[in-house]
Write a structure and sequence with these properties.
CATH architecture: 3-Layer(aba) Sandwich
Distance between the termini: 16 Å
CATH superfamily: Acetylglutamate kinase-like
Oligomer: single chain
Radius of gyration: 17 Å
Strand content: 15-25%
Number of strands: 9
Shape: globular
Strand order of the largest sheet: 3-2-1-4-8-9-7
Number of helices: 8
Number of domains: 1
Largest sheet: 7 strands, mixed
Structural class: alpha/beta
Length: 229
């Protein structure tokens, strides 16, 4: 059984590396691997604070010469930095190099770590491609957002959390276009492809590891399920 997790950079390195969270996450992964000998994980890691800070510096300093493609490349390099960290702390559980092209990935061990690929989308899209390639039944998207809401709860007090929704409903919320650093629960480009291949995605808060464990055990959880299960 392969579990694909899109691990948001916002929880790996919101500003600096969240070492206590990563320590607890590693303990959970080791426990789950010990529980089930057939379980395997693919982690696709986002850019988080390093991406945001370096992209902002680029956009400020480049002025009118800003290139969305270059901004994306800066974000991609941040995902690779974070992915190398995750791979390193996994030690012997992850024996392969960080995957940077999901269309060419091979998976030989218990845990595989991937990062951003190329401009035009976020690492969420890489997670969808890897789930498709290795026939995972869903993607678990862990970020600093507990659920998808009807609107931005930071600006609309009447926004309501959503437990389940179709891809058509979700894509109305996030649109169809990608821009470097875009803040959405799941990348629009990844959403379009997941809808096409009928791949469910679960969005949940990554730091609530008790809830993450419930998701991985198939129990009731707090989050939003997009698409059919």
């Amino acid at each position: 059984m392969i579990t694909v997790i899109s691990l948001g950079g916002s929880i790996v390195a919101p500003d600096t590396v969240d070492e206590p969270f990563l320590k607890d996450l590693l303990s959970l992964i080791k426990m789950l691997l010990d529980e089930e000998s057939q379980r395997r994980f693919i982690f696709v890691v986002g850019g988080g604070g390093p991406a945001r800070i370096w992209q902002h510096a680029y956009q400020t300093l480049a002025g009118t010469a800003v290139s969305p493609e270059q901004a994306d490349w800066i974000g991609i390099m941040a995902t690779r930095l974070n992915a190398e960290l995750i791979r390193g702390i996994l030690g012997p559980l992850c024996t392969q190099a960080v995957v940077t092209d999901p269309t060419q990935a091979v998976f030989e061990g218990r845990v595989l770590v991937a990062a951003g690929w190329k401009p035009g989308f976020s690492s969420d899209y890489d997670a969808v491609l890897l789930a498709e390639r290795f026939k995972a039944d869903k993607v678990i998207n862990l970020s600093n957002i507990e659920q998808v809401y009807t609107d931005d709860p930071r600006t609309n007090a009447k926004a309501q959390p959503i437990d389940t929704m179709s891809w058509a409903e979700f894509r109305v919320l996030v649109g169809d276009e990608w821009a470097p650093g875009k803040h959405v629960p799941f990348d629009p480009i990844a959403s379009r492809h997941a809808a096409q291949i009928k791949l469910p995605v679960i969005c949940a808060a990554g730091r609530n590891l008790e809830n993450v464990q419930k998701i991985l055990h198939g129990e009731s959880f707090i989050g939003t399920t997009i698409g059919p299960l």
